[in-house]
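User: Second chain of the day. Same drill as before.
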Amino acid sequence: MRFNIPLLIWLTVLTFLIFWVGNSNGTFTLPKEIQTILAKKDTPSPTKSPEEIPELKGILGSDQTVRLKSARKLVERVDVEEALEILEKSSLPHTGEGHLAVHQIGFYAYQKYGVDSILKCKDYFLYACYHGAIIEAASDQGFEAITKMTDRCKAYPVRYFQCVHAGGHSILAIWDYDLPKALETCDHLYEKEAKFPEALSSCHNGAFMENLFGVHDWGKDKELKRDWLSDDPYFPCNYFEEKYQKGCWLNQAARIYQMHSGDIAKTTQICEEIGNDQYTAWCMDNIARQIHPLTLGDPIKSFQFCQQVGPKWYDNCVVVNAGSFYSVGGRDEAFFICSQVSPALKNECFQRVISQVISDPIKKSEKEKLCQKIEMPYKNQCLSGLSSLP
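Assistant: Same format as last time:
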């Protein structure tokens, strides 16, 4: 399977950003507590690569083709679960390129274990192993294999939605980037899902994301089609009917962001001018998630970058970033962000990450340890939320 790595993949890190943005009310500055931490903060040293794992040299290098091949060699040598643990503990960044490298683990998992491969995956690198396994299954067995695979994720809702999201990616790729056909296929597979009604939107979301970034190339030696992109910042959202709007707007800011060379303030302005408050809210959520990878794993930078969305959206941006850190494995970083926000925002921030702890597909004992890291009174709220779990 050949990969097409887009120049502006959804987690590309800009090389230059303006940290301080003015607004009509004057200069929007960081809280004093954050300024103090910034003044004292040292640059963390990079994690050293264990010499006993030869594939890591290629995986942690700058050549994406070498990275993909090295990830494949690693999983072939040590199998799925150990390969995932090695990559999670390495300094492989949680970026688009890192995500694609972990796809290789999923590809191999399906080829060796079939539909049960989904049970070998772990929730690292934003569920990249699940993505790879489902994509490989769909290419092998067609659309019905997607539901076979995603059904195995239902034990944990957050995992299920990510699996279905991966299905949306693969469906669009199978349809050679015919977006209407892909969305109709999502409808066919998930519209009758009663227990998890948001699954349908998750599939739509995956298809719209794939349309923007073209991560998966199903053909050989041919150009990917991009009939559903244009210079209209609101296209293709303004083409489709209401039931597709959530999936579209939760990704569209990434397109606007690309069109304006990473100008967060301009992207915010265009989102605010959509003319529909709900669509704008989804668009702004997407901007916040665009900001997260720009932090390079440093939660302090969330406070800096979120200034660029202006005071109206600043709090939401910070809270979304806390959730984003947790979702890619940065649990301590998520707790840190919530500990540093204003008292008025703490409850909302901690409630978000506590809900993620409770729904996290890890052992209850591990969740209890995470709750213990949270400051009072939210620690007790977290532990109380676990009390009803088996």
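The chain has two domains: 1-17+55-218+225-229, 295-390.

User: Great, on to the next one.
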